[in-house]
Structures are given as C-alpha cells and as structure tokens.
C-alpha cells in the first residue's frame, strides 16, 4: 500500500522528462532535482531518509536541534524503531548514545524518552 501510494504520488508529481531516474542525476547541484531526490528518498526508503537527516543533525560541531527534534518527535510513533536500526547499521553506534553525546539537560532527557530510553 505504501508502495502504491508512493508510485501514484511520484507519477502525479514528476514531469515526463524525469521518467528515467538517471535524469535525476543529470545535475547534482540543481536545486529542483535535489528536492525531487529528497522527496523520492523520503517516500521509497523513509527510514534511510530520516537516518540521514538525524546523522547530519548530529554530525560536526553543535547540533541541528530543529531537524533532530522534528525527526524524533514526528516519527516517534511511526517508524523511529526502523530509523534507529538504520542509524546503528550505518554509524555502528546506537542512536541513543549519539543523541546523549550531542545534547544535554532537559532537551537530552526528552529525546531519550522518545527514543525509548530514560
Ligand atoms: Ca554535533
């Protein structure tokens, strides 16, 4: 069902010239194609898409709190378990540990609670 919805969505969305997925790689810097690729990833492999959003939110100095909060709160009762599995697989670190290492205080407690671990 998810697949059917996705296909219908994509058929309605994509102009004919993008029928061949290879065309989507034509210009890696094209913002429109970049957005389309993100939408396609989001619909075809949501766990991998959100794993990437979380990974990029945690990576580097500081934390992209708005992205991290958005993914963990909106996916908590949807597919957070799959996102956690994808994160562990990709980064060889449990997502809870990465979040605990990158955040602090009440914010950390809230995220860890949503991740299913106090
Ligand atoms: Ca960081």
From TrEMBL:
Gene3D superfamilies named in the record: Annexin (1.10.220.10)
Highest taxon above the source species: Eukaryota
An example Gene Ontology CC term for this record: plasma membrane
Keyword Transcription: no
GO biological process per UniProt: response to cold; response to heat; response to salt stress; response to water deprivation
UniProt free text on domains: A pair of annexin repeats may form one binding site for calcium and phospholipid.
Family: Belongs to the annexin family.
GO molecular function: calcium ion binding; calcium-dependent phospholipid binding; phosphatidylserine binding
Name under which the protein is recorded: Annexin
């Amino acid at each position: 069902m998810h697949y059917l919805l996705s296909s219908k969505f994509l058929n309605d969305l994509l102009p004919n010239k993008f029928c061949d997925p290879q065309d989507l790689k034509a210009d890696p810097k094209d913002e429109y194609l970049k957005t389309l690729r993100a939408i396609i990833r989001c619909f075809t492999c949501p766990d991998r898409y959100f794993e990437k959003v979380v990974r990029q939110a945690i990576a580097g100095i500081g934390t992209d709190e708005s992205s991290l909060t958005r993914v963990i709160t909106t996916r908590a009762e949807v597919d957070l378990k799959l996102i956690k599995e994808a994160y562990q697989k990709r980064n060889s670190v449990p997502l809870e540990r990465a979040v605990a290492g990158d955040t602090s205080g009440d914010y950390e407690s809230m995220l860890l609670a949503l991740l299913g671990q106090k």
